[in-house]
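job 3f2a | input accepted
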Amino acid sequence: IAALSPGFSAEAADYVVDAPRTQLVVQVFKEGVASGLAHDHVVAATEYSGKVSFDDAAGTGSISVEVKAASLKADDAALRTRFKLPPGPSSDDRATIEKNLKSEGQLNIAQYPTITFQSTKITRQPNGRFQVVGNLTLRGKTKQVEFPANVELQGANFHGQGEFKFNQTDFGFEPYSAMFGAIRNKDGLILTLDIVATPVAPKGN
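job 3f2a | predicted structure (205 res):
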């Protein structure tokens, strides 16, 4: 998912996403005439898997990630602090937010239990970063997304970071609203990826 550092081997290297050290976070923004009564939100995936592969010499690679939609958690206090948001909703309100998020009118996780990203093209840029193009599948619809990203090696591990914006309506559902639209979420969301992946052991080891 990222730009390759000069320390990468000339041969392709394969990694598996280290879920406990990885964060996939969606930022949700409020609007509407009564938006002062609402909150911006951060929603984090807590169960996911993925693979990364890169060839430094060729300047190519791939990434795939699959998220269990039921694992999405809203407004963790530490995460809100990281994204410079004020104290958020109560525990009861967080439960309601998550219920609405996963409902039939929103992500409809009963029918669409996974969210996936699969790269289709990764190109090294003159500045050393990579431009990532791929398919995001959400609520049964697949759309192409594109974004720049960075990487560094931390010992033997891969660390990639990037973010991109997408619209909920592009995936077939309307942003949540209440009070006849006086409180509502903006259509545009930002997905931030902070991925740590560990080397795949060679076959036979």
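job 3f2a | The mean pLDDT is 85.
job 3f2a | closed
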